[in-house]
Amino acid sequence: MRTSEEIYHRVRWDARFDPARFVMGVAQRGTVPKRVPLPRFTPGGEIPWHRVLFFEADGEVVWDRSSGVDRIDATDAGRVRVPRRLPSPYFVSRTPHAFSAPEAAWTPVPQDLPPTARPAALTLLTWNTLWDRYDSDRIDTARRRPLLLDALRAAEADVIALQEAEPALLGLLLSTPWIRESYTFWAGPAGREVADCGLLLLSRLPVREAGLHVLGPHKAVAAVVVETAKGPVTVAVTHLSSDHSPDGAARRDAELADLATGLAAIEGDVALLGDFNDGSDTPQDRLGMPDAWSLVHGADDRTPTFDPSVNPLAAVSSLTGRVSRLDRVLIRSERLRPASATLLGEVATPDGLYVSDHFGVRVELAGATAAETETDDEGTAAADLVHRVAAALPGGRVHLVGSRRMGCALPGADVDLVAALPGDGDLPGVRERLAAALPGAVDLREVTGARVPGLRFRLDGLRVDLVTVATGALSPDVAVGRRAELGGAAAVALSAVSDADAVLAAADPHRAAFTRLAREVKAWARARGLDSAPCGGLPGLAWSVLAARTANEAGRLPPLPLLRHFFATWAAWDWNRPVGSGDAGGLPLAVLTPTAPVRSCTSQVSPAGRDLVAEELFRAWEILESTADTAPVPHALLCAPPPLGLRHAAWAVVSVRRGADEGRLRGRLLALLDALAQAGSPDAHAWPRPFAADASHVQYAIGLGRTPPDEARLAEIGARLLHGIPEADLRRTNRGGVPELR
To answer: Which of 202, 470, 632, 711 could form a disulfide with 425 if both were Cys (CB 3.0 to 4.6 A apart)?
Structure first.
């Protein structure tokens, strides 16, 4: 039987449990045990562990000291019903509270929220309210607070994010009728969150979850996940260190690095609000999140939110008198776009009093256009799919990887998942659980011949590639960090998680520029037939590594010059040198993975493939060199179909049945290309996508280069390499036998 301390920390830190649904029974002398909500219990506080008598979850006793009951792992009680969006342990869960008129008190919000009408737009407000810890005799707090309440009410914001709030302001807000009627407070009113970090969140939208992460002494980030008509959105608030602090700039740098790590792990739409104490573009560049004000008013608009030249309150606290835009609303979303951004409190009362030393910022987010949301709609569906797969595999840890994790997926991209599963993995059992949990899954099948077991299926129009890693006795929650203990193949599979995160970090401080650049480059590579590893091209990870390095070096450039810089850099690259830290190993073209086990993700590229990539990079560079910086990116010219009729004297057409046989064929294409090279066609090139299909079969085209083998040799190669794939057929055709490929 585990101790009460072990049970507490298991519930608190294991993302599969919802602490808000647990109650602890604490012994009291001479009376019945006191029931304490687990989130309100303070470890190491006044109550020693031996006084904890039992734990209940959803009304069920899951641990009891006197009877020896310890069944927290044998019941669904207390389990998270809706997968969390705020990752643990980065965010420590908080319990949102709403005012209950019958109880005349602020009470915990139930996790199962009833459906309500939710707006399509989302209005956010951030304001540093100026607490009176300093210079209290000069800032007239008592007169300013009613002005703040009036301004907040008039703003009609869906989410209010305040900084430099203190318990007195919290008490005032939570006693205000219009706030009690409409808003949810992100934590417990009796807690110390506001007193400790000065952050306060109120939402009039349903709050699905809330959390807090401490950045340092008196510095933190608080977050809520709110439900909108467009789906869940994470809204976070922070207040970074100022230059009043010793080494303020260094502390801000560390805080931004911490935030970048935590926010990158949040799926879906994210808004980060607050006082960043930095008037430059560093916060948005470091976090890869554009500033809503700049998106609405233009990058050159420097309207200040802190202006000591006009606001006497700002003059009191300013060290330099510098006018700055310190307060921001940063957005990471393809579905939501800033429709407006305005200041609040920038006009003084007739007697010269301002609400605060900072002006507030109000931003309205609206849905993007159909063209803008195509990719993100898929991203939302992919995020939902990840949660559904995770719910079907309790005890495991499911990670989204690849381009969708990096935020640079093209429309129609696969949803790549890696699932760390306890024990031996039991792939047939995984398949059964997924089939039961996802009745709409089509063509659910095991992947054969792969180094690591996996499953493939289609769901809601998305192709899903799920790799499973058995972690044995190792907890799936730590499998990524300790992947080397699980063997080579498992370590490679799990490194897809760390590789994607490392690519994003490598793009710093220009993640937004990286996302745009990576999509443009991958669209170009797709159009020119260079994007498929099974066909001898570069995989998405390789193009992302190159784009991240370019963004890191030149991400401040406008879109067209940045794209030109990408092609100029890599067209001139000496491919005898690897891209990354490590040895090229004699490969013609080596792009190394950014995390261990370090390896080339381009080992399939042949010398002829390298020459083709270099040729295409030069072509794109030349096109952009002749395009003015002020012109739009000439996508139509860049992505025009390549002159395949000039490259190949003849073609081979492979016909194969749909489904698993198509996968077997793609797994043999590199061997087929190698055999063609040995037969005298080193410049043979397999087009990455089928060019024809019917209800039962698909056809792939292979350009045979300038010196194609004769029909007899081609038939011999086909018979040998397609053996075991029923109905697979390889035949030779002339140039006219294959249509224009895209």
So the answer is: 470
Radius of gyration for the alpha carbons in the chain, expressed in angstroms and rounded: 29
Give 306's DSSP letter: B
pLDDT for 370 beyond 50 = no
Selected from 3.40.440.10, 3.30.420.40, 3.40.50.2000, 3.30.70.1430, the CATH number assigned to the domain covering 647-737 reads: 3.30.70.1430
- Cα angle 112, 114, 120 (rounded to 5 degrees) comes to 115
Q: Are 475 and 465 in contact (CB under 8 A)?
A: no
Q: Which helix (H) or strand (E) holds 152?
A: helix 141-155
d(Cα 82, Cα 184) in Å, to the nearest integer?
19
Mean pLDDT rounded to a whole number for the chain: 89
Residues in contact with 290: Cβ distance below 8 Å, sequence separation at least 6, in sequence order: 284, 330, 331, 512
For the beta carbon of residue 377, count every other beta carbon within 10 angstroms: 17
The pLDDT of residue 377: 62
Decide if pLDDT at 723 tops 70: yes
pLDDT, tens digit (0-9, with 9 covering 90-100), for 41-64: 888 888 999 999 999 998 899 999
Which CATH number applies to 508-638: 3.40.50.10860, 1.20.950.20, 1.10.10.10, 1.10.1410.10?
1.10.1410.10
Q: Are 458 and 440 in contact (CB under 8 A)?
A: no
- pLDDT category at 369 given cuts 50, 70, 90 is very low
Taken in order 181, 182, 184, 190, the sign of the CA dihedral is negative
CA 339/CA 367 separation, integer angstroms: 9
Q: How far apart are CA 541 and CA 562, in angstroms?
A: 19
CA distance to 154, 395, 424, per residue, from 487 (Å):
60, 21, 14
Give the tokens for residue 725.
């794939």
pLDDT, one tens digit per residue, over 314-337 is 998 888 888 999 999 999 987 788
Distance linking the first and last C-alpha atoms of the chain: 63
Instruction: Give, to the nearest 10 degrees, the angle between helix 540-554 and helix 488-507.
Output: 30
What's the pLDDT tens digit per position in 560-592? 999 999 999 999 999 999 999 988 889 999 999
Q: Tell the burial category of 674 from Cβ atoms under 10 Å away from its Cβ (0-12, 13-18, 19+).
A: middle
Q: Which of 526, 554, 552 is closest to 540 using CA atoms?
A: 526
Identify the bridge partners of residue 271 per DSSP, sorted by sequence position.
235, 331
E strand or H helix that includes residue 397? strand 397-400
Task: Write out the H or E segment, with its range, that includes residue 379.
Answer: helix 370-392
Q: Which pLDDT value is given to residue 739?
A: 63
For residue 450, give the nearest of 464, 469, 429 by alpha carbon: 469
Q: Which position has the token pair 């502390």? A: 251
